[in-house]
């Protein structure tokens, strides 16, 4: 059985709690209790170091422990600098320091997302008197170098890592134990809803919520799309909206239903094939095929449209979205005994700026029902 751990926001919050405790009592703590909120449980997090820097400022350090996840942040230090503050405003102001990424598509705001904000606000506010105010700066000393090895830049986050996540528990990724966990969640939600939304990762989950989709209808799949589509059909789910980053979801158009890049990665072949099918010129197809990433290929197609007044992005991605729907239905039917009553699939693809590129015909219908 794989061992779960905690997500980065939990360790950032633990550091902040320890630093605030120092300001209040001038005493170091060996560990702190963090209310995870989601799930509703308390985590005991070891504190590596804590010290006062001045009468009004303290620094505490924890180390990331994501369990048996293949997580590049394992053992990385997470610092929290907490300072007493006077004046107006919220009781807890959260800032991103060195190693916390910035969101290019959100006015260069620090990449400290909803769950992390809520976790810090709720845990720290409980420790403050009504008139007290603090500023919390989260620092990841190795965040900038670690970020180079992630796909953050594909989602418009640069210069560091994100405090991203919707829960405090870090489940092992791409392991059979994780699939068991996801199937259990799917079984629970399938008993409540006839229409569900499959999101491969946290970016999809976060964007879906912001667009107004009921969080209870969202199912995280990681790379296990194939098994979970079949499971949804077995459970009698009528409709699935596949909602994801185009560089991942387009793999389904090529019949790849486990999307981890170590197993299969036919993105440029899939994209180039659909470019050819809609009639793109040979030299432009070669440019798309030779693009280092799906995002770079999309950028090139957008530049063609801007320069020539063409509509290649819409034509190509509409064909890809239709192929995703068709291949997904075929995949389900090949494993189903339900006949004509198999689960219907629609798809929506978004880009690095979290802007929707295309909705398939069914995807658009499902989106209207969900929002």
UniProtKB/TrEMBL annotation:
Pathways per UniProt: Cofactor biosynthesis; adenosylcobalamin biosynthesis; cob(II)yrinate a,c-diamide from sirohydrochlorin (anaerobic route): step 6/10
A UniProt-annotated Pfam family: CbiD
GO MF entry, a single one: methyltransferase activity
DNA repair recorded as keyword: no
Superkingdom, natural source: Bacteria
Top EC category: transferase
SUPFAM superfamilies, A to Z: CbiD-like (SSF111342)
Family, as annotated: Belongs to the CbiD family.
The protein's name in its UniProt record: Cobalt-precorrin-5B C(1)-methyltransferase
Organism, as annotated: Nodularia spumigena UHCC 0060
Gene for this chain: cbiD
